[in-house]
């Protein structure tokens, strides 16, 4: 895990965020999710600079569609946001986890 991911893991681990249990580096099908909350059917992906590489955005879109087909919502967060405004990140995760999944 990179530094932003480690910081986020510290806030999510041991059900620290509203009692939600997150797993890190969770394998699911052909993918490994940065963070996953089964109860909320929520994948949280931290996107760093590597996501700006040609072809990566298309790969992310296919991955998110694959997860959506299985009832899992993907919340993508720029790594920079984790560094600049961690409170905003946690608010966005709370909001996404509270959203009913269909």
Question: What does this protein structure show overall?
Answer:
With 102 residues, the protein is an alpha+beta fold. The protein has one domain: 3-Layer(aba) Sandwich (Endonuclease, Chain A), CATH 3.40.960. Helix content is 42%, strand content 25%. The protein is built from 4 helices and 4 strands. It has helices at residues 3-12, 56-69, 79-84, 86-98; strands at residues 23-28, 31-37, 42-47, 73-78. The protein has a 4-stranded mixed beta sheet with strand order 1-2-3-4, sandwiched between helices. The termini are far apart.
Name the helix and strand elements from N-terminus to C-terminus, one letter apiece: HEEEHEHH
In this structure, how is the largest beta sheet organized?
4 strands, mixed
Helices and strands: which structural class?
alpha+beta
Separation of termini? 30 Å
Low-confidence stretches: none
Please tell me what the overall shape is.
globular
Helix fraction by DSSP (H/I, runs of at least 4): 40-55%
Oligomer state of the chains in this structure: single chain
CATH topology: Endonuclease, Chain A
Average pLDDT number:
90
What percent of residues are in strands?
15-25%
CATH architecture: 3-Layer(aba) Sandwich
| Helix run count | 4
In total, how many domains does the architecture comprise?
1
Strand order of the largest sheet: 1-2-3-4
What is Rg?
13 Å
User: How many strands in all?
Assistant: 4
CATH level-1 class: Alpha Beta
